Amino acid sequence: MIEGALGGFAFKTCIRFFPRRSKRDFISVENRAGCFSSLGKQGGRQVLSLNRNGCVYTAIIQHEFNHALGFTHEQTRSDRDQYVRINWNNIQSNMAYNFDKSDTNNLNTPYDYSSLMHYSSKAFSKNGHDTISPLSPHPVQLGQNRGLSDSDIKRINILCKCNTEPEPVKCSSKV
Question: Can you tell me which residues form the catalytic site (predicted)?
Fold first, then answer.
């Protein structure tokens, strides 16, 4: 399952993941509590948790590896207030940090409601009500579980210079 999910990066980007042989910097996929990754390259052993009970799905695997590449959640973008409203009163208090706005480099790409990195409308709701409401006048779905969106792919290609470099490059910047 993990190799198949990582193949989704190779299909439309220059990103390739290889089994570790002797590299000093590497991602260690571990069965810990929850689904999580550090943001961007940390150096040395970098833990990416994919708990066997709930995290081993293509979209979740790709989501966590996107974090390892340096991508934040879409709803934390610096320009998010133009596109969504965060309903703080509906968010579980211990999960509110996932909705904090960040100072991001959006790589001159539009806000993507359907990004793999966007939470659903009821993510971490404490009462069943929306935690994120789109401001779009048109119907939109927040987040999805099908895999990398076109904008996700475009951002990876921009950040990692996939279209301008002949060889795959090491991608370590935070976005």
Answer: 64
